[in-house]
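Revision sheet: structure tokens.
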Amino acid sequence: RGPALERQLGWWRERLAGAPARLELPTDRPRPAAQSFRGAREAFELPADLLDGLRALGRSEGATLYMVMVAAFQLLLAKYAGTDEVVVGSPIAGRTRREVEALIGFFVNTLALRTDLSGDPTFRGLLRRVREVTLGAYEHQEVPFERLVEALQPERSLGHSPLFQVMLVEEDAEPAAAGLAGVELRRLAADSGTSKFDLTLAFGAGADGIDGSVEYATDLFERATIERMIGHLRRVLEQVSADGELRLSAVELTGEAERRQVLEAWNATDAVYPADATLHGLFEAQVIESPDAVAVVFEDESLTYAELNTRANRLAHRLRGLGVGPEVRVGLCLERGLEMVVSLLGVLKAGGAYVPLDPGYPAERIETMAADSGIAVLLTQDRLGGVLPDTGGIPILRVDADWEAIAAGSAENLDSGVTARNLAYVIYTSGSTGRPKGVMNAHGGVVNRLCWMQAEYGIGAGDVVLQKTPFSFDVSVWELFWPLQQGATLVMARPGGHRDPLYLQEEIERRGVTTLHFVPSMLQPFVETADPARCATLTRVICSGEALPAALVDRFHARFPSTVTLHNLYGPTEAAVDVSWWACERGTSANIVPIGRPVWNTRLYVLDTALRLAPAGVPGELYIGGVQVARGYLGRPALTAERFVPDPFATGAGARLYRTGDRVRQRADGALEYLGRLDFQVKIRGFRIELGEIESVLRRHPDVRECAVVARGDAGEARLVAYVVGAADADELRAHLQRSLPEHMVPAAFVALDALPLSPNGKLDRRALPAPDFAAPVDTYVA
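Predicted:
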């Protein structure tokens, strides 16, 4: 009590200030709201020669075997959790003061050992840090742990213990000093079926080596996961005992067998496809097969394959006369309908690449994209004249008002001069600097993707595909071109209809739709409102664009009959649409719906920050290789070099990987699970958004001093929230953003703050941002 206690508490307050509330280890099951303390134990042994090496390493740094094990364990946990700060608990028997022992007997306590692993030190460097941390904790061990928790007031939860969730226990080799650690190890050896913490590593050294065990919470982990973790710990110990000068980033968890599994088994995707084909060439081949079949329908209008081909050819000849050819970009500012399909095919037939300019975007954004893309021609409709950008003299063709002149052109197919390597489209995504970036994709990657899709799902003349995705979103690529290459019918939803579940149900019933796509946030209202009896023709629903919740999969299967299958696909704009796939089978339960396995001729790698393969179960960044990787960002060579990196696993020269920024892990069967973003990029209703772009536009407002934008799930779905320091009100800020950004990038709520909350190191503390009130005023409420 008194000054002595305050001195020790002051040291702990400083040592643990700003420590993470929880070590975010990847678990096999979601953390329950309250710990059940159910557990199991897995034992292991390490040989005597490894023990000798670890002891020698410790002696060279004035450290004990215990300190070496703490350092190795914290390194393993850091790699698993993707963090550079780890807190573990450790029991200690206090004998530093004989008078204390004489008064109260054997005194036991628990220490919280917090280690900073940042800066990529050598393992020796880490060991020095651990030694300093441990000795400091020993010097201040007399503060009871309960008193420390009371003083620090950490975030409390029934779901996990405070300050740390992982324990390390050493059995002292000297019987007289075995104390609590020995008791604890013997308790673990009995496998009591309980676990106080998420994980407890216990070990003891003997003449034959190290005997140890890992006790784990069975609410969180499977036995196979713990077995892999023990193997990874052994690999860490073997590497650092052999070379203490290894940088932490150079310590590999993946063994040779795991490496072969990733490279040779899980990425065995080689397949034969028409590598020289083009998108329009495959359509022209289908025209020969089924000229009189209905190709495309919009409301009360339709075109056969032959009619669609003729119209597209006439437009293509006109575009050719305006200088369109290979690598020439053509802007399309069009509403969904027959004219959109004709225009897309016309641009490709002329040899050009199309650039979607969504008429629903603000005029400023359309103008920015048109200027950045360097379009040579703009195709539009007469009724959209009010939203067209200033093209600076670029020719404008109105495919409705100017059609009489366009129709005078030849109806014959052109020799486009395009190969599979030529550009097919440029689609813009959100940019972190406030400037959208155009992604360039060539014909070959898209053709591979469509050929895989046909082999997997196999549509034909009897199928009807509903096209409802905005064509500024890359899912529209397969919606538009896949059915037209297979003799199926393409039904174009009316503009805005993709947001109306009842309209979609009517179209499914009216047109006999068999296939359609949803982003999960739109699938949910469809599942809740649709009448399965009116969707009797539906056979497959494909999801992509954002994480698919497991609960939504269960609701879908409960509502729709077994004749309707659900599929989860994944792919960024920087690849030719989707790169992985997963069939959501009935009767299987999963906490995370996988994004699955790679499609044809595509490689997917989970890598750490040093571009080393992460083993199964360990999160890392997803990298994409193979034929579907995009060419890069239009006019942005530096950004292209940053995101498209050399492929260290390729055998051929010039191969590249795309860094997705997505945090994933591979299951034991090779299927990938999406865990979230590594940066501040998010997906809202299927649209990928750089939060930095919104912040950049917000800061342009003269009354905004500071701001931060986050995606929050407080209201049950992800919504954007802007936190603003300044005098501007919400309506003014919303109007300011709407002049530059599309609707899906305008925050749903604005929160005024006197100052942004900062962490102890001076960075924005996003966790401390208050929850907003999403309730809208009655007079502006929209159902």
